[in-house]
Amino acid sequence: MCGAVHASDIAILGIHRKPPMIDHDAITGLCELPLAISACPLGAVKPATVKNSAGEDVKSVKVTAERCMFCGNCYTMCPAMPLADPDGDGIAILVGGKVSNSRKAPMFSKLVIPFLPNTPPRWPETVAAVKNILETYAKDARKYERVGEWAERIGWEKFFEKTGIPFTIKSIDDYRLAYDTWRTTTQFKFTSHIK
Ligand code: SF4
Cα of 19 to ligand 1 centre, how many Å? Predict the structure, then answer.
């Protein structure tokens, strides 16, 4: 349920790690270029005249890779900009969200495992990671406690300790406007665990 990743006890999120690949042969017929350009929240997509595979000049776009955060928004507007890539794509695990207002206010989940490989058809690494979190929670939590409530009660430091999940810098919020998202981010604010 990708739309509720922020509010799930344990969420499995498919992620990209590479910028879109542009099909310059197909883009003019498939996409409204201004829509593809304005779809990028980071201004990474710009208009460009490039050569297609037949050596002709075509109106297309270029992507500034260093600005891209691999969100896939451009692809939703322009199918000639796919991001899917067997090596780049993977899975992130988020933990501790809930919508319910009972006992505690609703909570956003936090990114605890930034990347696991994409290994269909059975995704053994993802299954093992979820099983580990679930079994640690089942052993340690109080009755009726949700995963996030348990993690907050024992402390997130202890959550990483008990589950044996390494805490990495990827879970830290370094967004430059973080002050605005201080109360809404899904990520961690402390750095005491970075070694
Ligand atoms: S994937 Fe996202 S950040 Fe990257 S170019 Fe497309 S819209 Fe912009």
Answer: 7
